């Protein structure tokens, strides 16, 4: 119980004091994701220098889980390479599929830092999408940013909207 209480404090702190909030320039990709189940929304911008994530900026509204998750994600991925950030996203997905198994949370604690606090969320299927929304947005923005790399013909920040029905959050890119 003491660990769950600490995790709740971490989530509440990220919700009340969000890290990285506010849309900033420059950026190579911008995506907008909406969770149709509950109405959570996030617009995420990704700035990549070389293969390193230089900044993640965002604006969003929604429940404490969705907003705290993006704050924890920001802390975890800024300064990492895109492949490292995507690997962190895979670890977070594993955590969300663990159904609250403390052994999984313990195993992923070093890789996920504060994001491991969302382990308890995985016990509540309706809240998993809330926690995953920002991670799905990061994955989409990373693909767009990489396609904007030198030699690519498209600039993702100016691409038109398209639906991504395969994303669990019902994301839409801009």
From TrEMBL:
Every NIF system FeS cluster assembly NifU N-terminal domain range = 6-130
Which Gene3D superfamilies does the UniProt record give? 3.90.1010.10
Database matches in SUPFAM superfamilies: SufE/NifU
Write out the GO biological process terms.
iron-sulfur cluster assembly
Q: Which GO terms describe its molecular function?
A: iron ion binding; iron-sulfur cluster binding
Start and end residues of each stretch annotated as Disordered: 149-174
What is this protein identified as? Nitrogen fixation protein NifU
